[in-house]
Amino acid sequence: xxxVLVSDLVLIADYMRLLKQKDxxxxxxxxxxxxxxxxxxISSLDIDRLSIIPTKxxxxxxxxxxxxxxxxxxxxxxEIDDSGMxxxxxxxxxxxxxxxxxxxxxxxxxxxxxxxxxxxxIDRQMAVNSIKPEMDVTTDLxxxxxxxxxxxxxxxxxxxxxxxxxxxxxxxxxxxxKIFCTVMDINDISFIARFRVHKKTCDxxxxxxxxxx
Length: 213
Hints:
It contains four helices and 14 strands. The chain is an alpha+beta fold. The protein folds into two domains: 123 residues, DNA Polymerase III, Chain A, domain 2, CATH 3.10.150; 82 residues, no CATH class. The strands form two sheets. Strands 1-6-7-8-5-2-3-4-14-13-12-9 form a twelve-stranded antiparallel beta sheet, with helices on both faces. Strands 10-11 form a two-stranded antiparallel sheet. A hairpin with a 2-residue loop joins strand 2 and strand 3. The longest helix is centred in the middle third of the chain and has 24 residues.
């Protein structure tokens, strides 16, 4: 059994809202959007604000979690039965009978762990091999803020050697957010772009792998 304080759920709910993902996994001190596993949207949680660091990936639905949070009192605490390897468990308040489903899925967790490991390695490589320091590209990508999810693609010329095809909704953007970008060449035909969306309360990072055109 995992005991979770209400402050943990408040933090997870806030980050899920900022990620703008339907479903996200809470694993360790990371919250990871899992709507599209072909690329990763990830944010690190403030360890000082967490009562636990779960070693099993807990998948929350943003809408269900938001609804659940409105039904609880600030005095509530919770228990999660995580004994099953792949199962749907119930997160139940000790103070009342309200509950919601939380998925513990080791299959998805393996993919998320791999993404987290890759992102850490990418950050380490970029610290040594980055071709340029991190750049504020907010002005360059201002059209992305205006695009709806049905708007299609947006071609961004970072420089003469790095052309990126982005699409609407790829970053969880709000009006006052800023976007920073770092690019690292992998080889002669591909490179990785690390986009950091800076929000008031946290940073959300997306890693994208591109082929040179």
